[in-house]
């Protein structure tokens, strides 16, 4: 151990004091100079208007092409929908079950049959077929484009960095933000949604293709070279087969992304698909309907996920091809079933009509009443949770401790004496960091204390800018610092600073909730195999669900408002927290744990003192995933009434202001990409330090 | 092929390299500059925050037809890099490589592909099998690349799998085989296109000792049949001395000694190499021809040995009381003799070596 006094050199003290001093100076100046307290409206550049102008001449120029594409795909889609809806449902379900049998044996086939039965009984058959048609049309398109992009990035290493950034934007750019220009280009209706789906679903395939090809073991490349392969032979016979598991993963992820986006895109309407059923249920306060429809989505996504994952599973070593049925009989049987269905439909249209178009057997009115009764019974508890989170988490971040600490909720108010205690506490913590030889840790604590005291919204923008740039620099060096600085400058001049900051704190609150809950469940799962096995299918289901579904329980229990949005975000983002905690802790070498036990640690001690610190890089990567998930969910949560960037995008959609939507979307991407890079930078530094 | 009857050292030169360099950590142009001037001081200067690393530093040697040439050295000494420079899997920074008199470094990609298809075969440390292909398809892979039709290449691949003792396993996948069996597939594949030169990069290192020994015997058996020119990389001294016609010992990218196993065993070039030899059973490495004196005339009939016999075989006779043994060449004429003193003298010099 280094003696504490050694770390108090002049430069260390400067490192500790400089940033906090700047913060305090900004805070003090903000009282006197309004331009520091809030970004002056006069400096804002009307970016949205500029984007609208550009779109104004771009859209007519592109319309002939896009109009044609829209016609072609519209016709295809119609044909697909008509066909699927024309076929009697037993034929379709049976055919899918056969494919499921090929992919995952009798269990998966049974799952397909059960899902089909539920869909029919709940009365969503027609809508499901529309959704299925959209997925069937968009997946091959996205997968092909993604594959080609990945291939291009593989052969042109120079373009890789740029393409990765483009993929980041494609995946984080909220769909609502580009739906509007797409509507202008492709016309009102499902095709705009289809294009939005493709934009969102291409990157997973492209990324997986690229990383699969890049990670082909060197020795296999050398084998190809020494056998005298041409570039083409090498690609087709060595690299692509080696990348097959990654390609399969990419296809699976692309399919799931497409499904998720198809549902989300239903917000523009135009087709009566299952997403629309959920949405209209939500809008008409018909919770029963949206719950049933949401369950359909869950089942459909689980089935699609299992089938795509199973079909392309790498040919396993042992008994390959023996215990799995061959394609030929499966396809023949499926074709037979389908033609039988067709024949039946043509022979006896009236008989089957009734079967296909039943409204389901559930009485929605009864269901709604039961649900409301259920929620009402627990309303006290739910309100308590809601208030606790609002008063102790959300408010302090929004208006700061100075504004949020009130006698009514906290039992005391921020009198000068309390503030002094608070400051002393922060200083003490900072000094402890100093004693450990971490001046920047100390500085970070002081800055965060100041931030927490004023709250996010009132925090002066120059201080926030400086803090963010400094964090980026510390995390990943000058390049990222520059990127972060430019990003925030863009946010400021577009005048979207306040919504941006609100989004940030909403993300932070959601992430904090996820980290708490996910960390707790993750630790439990890491300690108990049985709990882990219990949790896994739930996690799987949660992770395959389209984001939209998460709104249903949030709304059901907490009504429209910021808190419901928060719950939806947290539900969606909690899974990575659980997963990464569990795997991170489980990957701690057993020898370390044995050592801890030898030293007399209790189980709790060995988790806190040994496992968690060792697993820090993995945990941080998990945190990154949680943050990204939370950000993806923000614009969707905005539909139930959060007031931040997502809301701006939603408003832009309503006002048909494409420029505002795109600007807010860009700001959104910048938030996501900056947070991602900073967290990954910190994880990388931790990793190399260990 | 006329030179095959000669001893290895006098046969035609098959593959040669001169002043071959591979330098990592600097742009290729600068690496070439360092290689051309042999500027060792430049290797000490930090560039871009690290020193350039000469993985191969000025290697020169000739490999003769049907010879087993072993590259030996510790891990990281640059053996694999040197081997890959010889096949141009890695582009050397400087120097020359000639195959049958043709400058390989001047060959374009098409010519290189042709040479690799026709003249070179390679075995990899971790086998390098393609997991999605069956054993038969793996072995036939080099032929498929050449566009040979399926029946022909499968017949040939069947022969090769038979040759390495894997008959009956043609339809299995690599993951279903043990390590030794996988490397047999690797060997069969490298031989499928009937290469003239056979490169092996630590082919048996990933196997456990018993299997390794078995595979070495197998390798010796194959080479007796095939008589390929072989470049064999290993870090295992015993393996090197067991298999080699000649050995090149590498250290930090440079070749520090080249010679037959006996030459190296008898006159190690420096302490570093002498240290290596502590694990080598000298009696099994040194052959009669390496230590015999010219036969003195008129001696009565001595117990007779051949020039190829190792000391381990001769020693019991000498210890049994014979004053000397006679050594005959392949034709049966007496060419030399060995007395007990010759052998004990040998070990005297060994022991005197500073450790
Ligand atoms: N692509 C590369 N970039 C930088 N340095 C490399 C590269 N490849 C090899 N080296 C370095 O060159 C040196 C020689 O490596 P090489 O793989 O040839 O050693 P080796 O003798 O085959 O060792 P081993 O017995 O472990 O296989 C090592 O120090 C290695 O770190
Ligand atoms: Mg090597």
Automatic annotation (TrEMBL), chain A:
Subcellular location: Cell membrane
Transmembrane segments: 42-60, 72-99, 105-125, 132-156, 176-202, 256-279, 291-309, 330-348, 388-406, 412-431, 443-473, 479-498, 505-528, 548-575, 618-638, 658-675
InterPro entries (alphabetical): MetI-like, MetI-like_sf
Domain spans labelled ABC transmembrane type-1: 128-308, 500-679
Membrane topology annotation: Multi-pass membrane protein
UniProt xrefs under CDD domains: TM_PBP2
Keywords tagged on the record: Cell membrane, Membrane, Transmembrane, Transmembrane helix, Transport
Organism superkingdom: Bacteria
UniProt keyword Zinc present: no
Gene3D superfamilies: MetI-like
Family: Belongs to the binding-protein-dependent transport system permease family.
PANTHER family hit by this protein: GLYCINE BETAINE/PROLINE BETAINE TRANSPORT SYSTEM PERMEASE PROTEIN PROW, GLYCINE BETAINE_PROLINE BETAINE TRANSPORT SYSTEM PERMEASE PROTEIN PROW
Official protein name in the record: ABC transporter permease
Organism listed in the record: Shinella yambaruensis
Source species taxonomy: Bacteria, Pseudomonadati, Pseudomonadota, Alphaproteobacteria, Hyphomicrobiales
TrEMBL record, chain B:
Uppermost EC category: translocase
Membrane-topology descriptor: Peripheral membrane protein
Record SMART domains: AAA (SM00382)
SUPFAM superfamilies the record matches: P-loop containing nucleoside triphosphate hydrolases (SSF52540)
Segments traversing the membrane: none
Main location: membrane
GO molecular function: ATP binding
Domain ABC transporter: 35-277
Signal peptide location: none
Keyword check for Membrane: yes
Enzyme Commission no: 7.6.2.9
Domain of life: Bacteria
Keywords: ATP-binding, Cell inner membrane, Cell membrane, Membrane, Nucleotide-binding, Transport
PANTHER family per the UniProt record, alphabetical: GLYCINE BETAINE/PROLINE BETAINE TRANSPORT SYSTEM ATP-BINDING PROTEIN PROV, GLYCINE BETAINE_PROLINE BETAINE TRANSPORT SYSTEM ATP-BINDING PROTEIN PROV
Quaternary organization: The complex is probably composed of two ATP-binding proteins, two transmembrane proteins and a solute-binding protein.
Similarity remark: Belongs to the ABC transporter superfamily.
Name under which the protein is recorded: Quaternary amine transport ATP-binding protein
Organism: Shinella yambaruensis
